[in-house]
Amino acid sequence: MESARSVFISKPYSIALSLSVVLKLATTIAFSILLIFTLLSVPVTQAYLSPEHEPKEILFTSEMQINLVVVGDEWSEEDEQGISSRLLKSYKPMILNENTPIGVEYKYNYTFVSAPEFFATQLYTFMKTVAIDVEMPEPVARWVVSEHPEFGDVQQIAYRIINAPEVEEFLSRSWPMEDEYTIFFFLPHEDELNYLHTYGMLTTDPDTDAEFLQEGMMGFGGSYRFYFIDLTAGPWTYPPMSLFCEDAENPLCDQVNHVKNKNIHDISSAEEIYDVMSEYVNNAVTLLFTPSYVYSPFYRINHELSIFLIDFTAERALVNTDQYINSELIDEAFSNLIPYAEWTSNVISLNFDDLPEDLQETFLNSIEFRSIEGSEIIIVKSDELIDGLDKWALGELTEEELNELRMEAETRIFIPVFIFIFDSEAYVDEYGLGGIAASSPVDPSIPCCTIIASNKNDVLFTGQGLSVLTIHETAHVLGLAHPHDGYRSDTGEFVDWFYDWSYTPLTYSAPTANGCGLDELCGMIIPDFGRFNFDAIDRGLALSLLNEAQLNVYDAVLLLDDLGYDSPDLPSEIISALNSIESDVQGARQHFNSMNYFNYITFRDTSNLMNPMDDAFDFALRAFETSEQLLRDVKSLESTITKPTPQLDISVTIKQTEKLTLISVQNNDELPLFGVKLNLEDGLIKFVKTRGWDRDRIDQNTVIVSTDDRPITAGKSLKIILISDNPNGSLEWSVLSKAGNELGKGVS
Ligand SMILES: [Zn+2]
Question: What distance in angstroms lies between residue 359's CA and the mean position of ligand 1's atoms?
Answer without folding.
Answer: 28
